Structure formats: C-alpha cells, structure tokens
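Practice problem 4.
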C-alpha cells in the first residue's frame, strides 16, 4: 500500500494497513500508526508520530524545524493523535527545546486546508481549525474548540474548551471556555450556546454559565470581584469551576 515513488527512510516505522501516496517522503524516526492514510506529495520530517487512522492529504508538511531564531537544531517532536485529519497544505512544526520540545495535535482533530501550527502548540480533543487558521508558537487550545477561517492567534494565547472563534479574527489574549469570540481584535460575544447544546450541555448548566458570564464580563467589576461574586452566587458545577479556574490562571490577559 506504499506507492513505488514514495521515499521511506529505513528508520521509519510503518504500522499495519497504512497507505502512502506517490512522491511522498517519510523521514527517519517517524512512526505511522495502523490504518493511517497519507496522500501524494506529503513530507513528513524526522521525529513525528502519527496516531492510528489519521488522514493526511496532499502537500501537507509535518515536522519541519520550527521558525524560531532561538532554535539550535535540538531533537524535538510532533505528536498527532489518532483519527485526526490534516487537509491540503497543512503545516505543523516541531517543538523547541526552550518551549517543551513537543508540538502536539490531540485525537480527532480536523485541520482544514492551509492551517499552520507553529512550534510548541498543543490542541485538545476534537479541535477544528478551519481554512487558513494560523497558530503562532506556544498556543494551547482546549477540547472541542473551533476556529473559523482566516483566524490568527498570537503566541502564548490559550483558548478554552468549547470556545468558538469567528472567521477572520485576530486573537491576542486568552479566550475563556464556552464562549464565542470574533473580530479584529477579537472580543467576546456571549456563550457558545448552540455549540454547548450540540454537545449535550443541560439547560441548567447553560443557565449557570450564562449567569457567571454576565457577572464577569457585563457589569463592570474587577476580575477578582467578579470571581468572588460568581463563587458566592452561582452553583459551582464542574463547568462553572472550570470557567473560574481558566480566568484565575490567565497570565496573558483575557479577551473581554
């Protein structure tokens, strides 16, 4: 199932039932999991792990050295979780020694055409990055988060679980979980209610998150004052606790 024109380094490990297309290059110390399909004209550089049942489309480039002047050629990695899809011209760069050494794509991710993921980024479960989404270095994206087309995210930004970023947005500060953000520069536009309902959040949980959101972002309190009020007035279900924890742990500052 490997095309005769593909170039596979002998130090690469190829799982069972893997398909590799024409003119694809696979470097040394690459591991490709069972059932993964790799299209034509793909380049997979050294130190990449692809999980089971991934799909990599034509002209994707995975595992190139990071675009960082601090990088000195150290051995760093890309890890891609099972069932992830990398569409045409996706680029994913290795980590850096000073940034943790790993760029990691979670399981069941969908990276659409021309998405770029820079060094030391990490995405959670079932993340969707639409066409031309660009992630600078050291970005963390939570589970089930979605970015629309042409989104650009500044280095060191965190995006919370179930957040939705509208297309053509420039994100320069952290985006809390469960919210919608959009614009240049991105601003918050309420809860991601439609997305949360689709993922089975109860009406009770949604009402609690809405109340917490209003307290934090709508009535002009300082962050500490707002968090104290949420803790006093809102039932602390796990989702509300996660919302509070994200706010408290933000070092870059919050999108508001």
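Answer key:
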């Amino acid at each position: 199932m490997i095309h005769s024109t593909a170039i596979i380094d002998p130090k690469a490990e190829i799982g069972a039932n893997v398909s590799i297309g024409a003119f694809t290059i696979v470097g040394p110390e690459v591991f490709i999991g069972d059932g993964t399909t790799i299209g034509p004209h793909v380049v997979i550089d050294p130190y990449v792990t692809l999980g089971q049942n991934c799909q990599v489309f034509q002209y994707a480039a995975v595992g190139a050295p990071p675009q960082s002047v601090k990088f000195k050629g150290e051995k760093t990695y890309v890890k891609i979780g099972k069932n992830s899809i990398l569409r045409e011209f996706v680029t994913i760069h290795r980590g850096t020694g000073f940034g943790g050494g790993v760029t990691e794509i979670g399981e069941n991710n969908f990276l659409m055409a021309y998405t770029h993921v820079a060094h030391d980024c990490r995405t959670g479960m079932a993340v969707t990055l639409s066409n031309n989404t660009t992630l600078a270095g050291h970005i963390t994206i939570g589970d089930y988060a979605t970015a629309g087309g042409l989104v650009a995210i500044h280095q060191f930004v965190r995006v919370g679980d179930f957040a939705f970023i509208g297309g053509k947005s420039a994100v320069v500060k952290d985006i809390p979980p469960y919210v919608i953000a959009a614009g240049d520069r991105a601003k918050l536009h309420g809860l991601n209610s439609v997305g949360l309902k689709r993922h089975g959040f109860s009406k009770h949980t949604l009402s609690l998150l809405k109340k917490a959101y209003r307290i934090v972002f709508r009535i002009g309190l300082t962050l500490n004052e707002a968090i104290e009020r949420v803790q006093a007035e809102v039932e602390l279900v796990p989702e509300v606790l996660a919302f509070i924890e994200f706010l408290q742990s933000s070092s870059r500052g919050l999108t508001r």
